[in-house]
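PH domain-containing protein structure dump, as promised
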Amino acid sequence: MMRYHPLTILYRIYQLIKNSLILGILLFVVKSNSDFWLFEYGRYLFIAGVLLRLIYIVVSWFVETYEWDNHTFQLKKGLFIKHTSTIPFSKIQNVTRHTTLFHKLFNLTSLTFETAMDGEDDTIAFEVVSKQHATFLLELANIEEEQLPKQENKQQEQAQHEEEVNATEKKVETDHVIHFEPTHQDLLKASFTSLSFLAIIPIVMGLYDIIGPLLPDSDHYQGIFYQIIDSRWLIIMLSVVAVVIAIIIGIVRTFSRYGKYRISSSATHIYIERGLLDETQFAIEKQKIQGLEIEQTLLKRIFGLAEVKLISSASPQSEGNAVSVNSLYPFLPINRAYQLMEALLPDYYVEESMNRLTKSSLYMKLLKPSWFWIVVTAGLIYFKPTIFQMDAAWWLLSLLLLLIVIVNRILDYLHTKYSISDDQLQWWHGGLTSRMFITKRRRVIEMSYSQSMLQRIFQLASISTMNRSTPTRIETINDVPLDFAKTFHHWYLQRQKDAIYQQKKLEHN
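structure tokens r here:
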């Protein structure tokens, strides 16, 4: 049995400090003189919680261990209740290698194996690990079972393997095909499309809270304020400075997040690398991809951009506000996104000619009641809030919300397109934010179609499909013609042909 890296203790303490800092400042700095019982007892609870967590971090490092054999990882943990889990290599779906600033200080990294298993043990996480050992674990999980040698002494084998790491990495890199690396122009476009420059708003609010006590009394402050208002040039200058600062912040955030971005692939895997300060490397096996998703927000549609996501049985996790690790570059031109999909996964293709909804579908969408609008309107009628010193503003809000609902439904009608081919289904749908979903028939584990009372009148139906994912991926397209729903059901029943084809393909290989 092996223990985790000793610096795991320091890393967990660092995470504890980072997660507790804001609450600690609130209790001991901002509200240090408060006698309110919630803050008074909260300080004692905070100290007790931090001390207990520190003890747990140290003790758990001695208890948590792991090992491996020819086929599986074995993990042991638990202070009072011992828990042992066995995870086969074959269940590993995705691999994420994340290097934060903390890891860079010690020339270390972190490694996460994500599986298709359910429960709290669906991931194998090495929060701190040496780069050599990380490479060894990656190779260990990717080697086929019949190629694994007998392991009489795991530590000796690891040492021998680490000597070959550099040569192995060079060989692997030559097998990779780089499909996409953003240019500086792409990153600048992403800076504006992602609205990162809006980060100036919370920063300005935070600065105002800090310098608020230093401002003059309200009587003097009012005079100063009116002097500023009277000076148009000063207002213009301050506005320009604020906009420039916002743009610079947006560019810095975008370059730090999407800098060194690279999408590459080998014969069996897709690789995504990104980040300047916090580096992330994501790998997924091609044959374990359940489908593809292309998403366009309203702003991205205006600029002709889209985001492509890989759907797998596992549930990749991203930290903080970082972009999802299973996402391809989120600001791809739409045509470039199609080309990239077909280059990474030749089995998938984008069908240009797709069926659109009928006019009866539009009538159906407009006649269907919006329960969200009804509930909000009922609340507005009851409370009748005064907004901008207008007593009648509540019904204006209700009309505005109704207009948004109607526009969203019309856009959903215009965007919805669907198509099925020999072994692939594809559809666009959505209003202000639209999505395209593509998957293979053999990847759909369940399908159904249903009709509401209104849909029966218009001879329409809703189709739902289910793919393996964590959580289960359910896609629904509403208000399609009933004839297509029946055709789709018949098409799905032919999925046995795909299984026979895949079996023959494996036997041939």
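Residues 355-509 form a domain with the PH-domain like fold (CATH 2.30.29).
lmk if u need the other ones
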